[in-house]
Design goal:
Blueprint: H1 9-25, E1 30-35, H2 41-49, E2 53-56, E3 58-59, H3 64-74, E4 83-84, H4 90-96, E5 103-109, H5 117-130, E6 131-141, E7 143-144, H6 152-164, E8 171-172, H7 173-182, E9 185-193, E10 197-204
Parallel strand pairs: 1-2, 1-5, 3-4, 5-6, 7-8
Antiparallel strand pairs: 6-10, 9-10
Helix pairs in contact: 1-2, 2-3
Amino acid sequence: MAGYSPLSEAAERNKLPILEVIRDHFPEHGSILEIGSGTGQHAAFFARQMPGIFWQASDLACNHAWIRQALAQAGCINTGDPFELDVGIDEHWNLVNMPPGKYDGAFTANTAHIMPWNRVVDMFEGVSRVLAPLRKFLIYGPFNQNGEYTSASNASFDRYLKSQNPEQGIRDDQEVLRLAESCSMDFQESIDMPANNRILIFSKVPEVHGP
């Protein structure tokens, strides 16, 4: 519908707390890749607040109109046209990764519990390819801790997700940490966020070259 924007109330609530974290972990200058930009609210807000950063939004093609609308309304000049990125399509990662290892950071919010687990694996493998050494990947959302729900609301949310699609669900932090390690990313820290969410922070391990 013309003029309609699928405003995410959650994105509006969490954008300020997330900004405080990403400012501490992303450089003041460089390129940041956002995976699953959705409505474009995060991309527009973070780009406006971090003028030295080039914020690259990405998502499935069906969401690009909303992202472009949000960026245009915010008057952002440090963003590009959104990339088409289905994390399970290798060719999309090849196009995103031009030149190789170009990004000084990567960010995603509320995607890991929506994607099937094999797509979460694809996302980590892709981020490992496009992230420059020692740069960070920040992933925001609800996570279980050592196999346990961190709140009753998260347990209820997980049941709802699985009722919609059995492949969805809140991921366990230890499983995500093992996945990151297999993709040459070191776990840095977990930061508690409002509404029983967390940000897990990983750093790309530099390649070790022989003598």
